[in-house]
Amino acid sequence: MLEIVQQQYGWIRSARQNMFAFLEELPLHVLHQTIPEFGRGTILRTHVHVVDSYRFWLESFAFRKINEHRDSPVHEIERADVKYVRKRFAEVDELVQRYLNAYCDRLSEPIEQDESWQGYPKSATPLFLLTHVETHEFHHKGQIVSMARHLGYPPPADDRLGGLFT
Fold it and tell me: How far is residue 152 CA from its own chain's centroid?
């Protein structure tokens, strides 16, 4: 099962590279332009939110480091460019690899949390957590593509499984 999960994450990384290539073509001011109806308000803020979500669920929840979790600082996001986001996703890739190494033989065994996780689930399997952050990334990918289109920058057609056949 681990090989399948790793292959799936590889496809996600490939689709993400296509997104980076598209975003690198956009002017920086467009990446920071506010569109309140979408995502986290801007393209880059939304993309960094995805990074923070991977970190929250795979690091803070799975590795029980809730007290260490901090979302990306607003001042960093406000100065960010695609290179910054690429770097942050490289950190996510390392985190996913550590996560898979740690849970490779127990992807279906629940990770139990104590009562300090008020408002959050107290139990989730490693496979569920990984599935959650991956689908969350694609949810926001759709928002980012919609924001770009709304701002007059239509993305290349990539509805063929996230652009994996390009």
Answer: 24
What does the alpha-carbon distance between residue 52 and residue 70 come to, in Å, rounded to a whole number?
8
Token code pair at residue 165: 């056949």
Instruction: Return the bridge partners of 112, or none.
Output: 123
CA distance 131 to 42: 25
Tell me how many degrees the CA angle 93-94-98 measures, rounded to the nearest 5: 120
Looking at per-residue confidence, does 158 or 119 come out higher? 119
**CA–CA separation, 51 vs 119, rounded Å?**
21
Residue 68 pLDDT > 90: no
**Alpha carbons 112 and 147: distance in angstroms, whole number:** 37
Q: Which residue has the tokens 């970190």?
A: 55
CB neighbour class for 23 (10 Å; exposed up to 12, middle 13-18, buried from 19) = buried
Whether the model pTM is above 0.70: yes
Residue 149 CA to residue 23 CA, distance in Å, equals: 12
Q: What is the mean pLDDT of residues 154-161?
A: 69
Is the pLDDT assigned to residue 30 strictly greater than 80?
A: yes
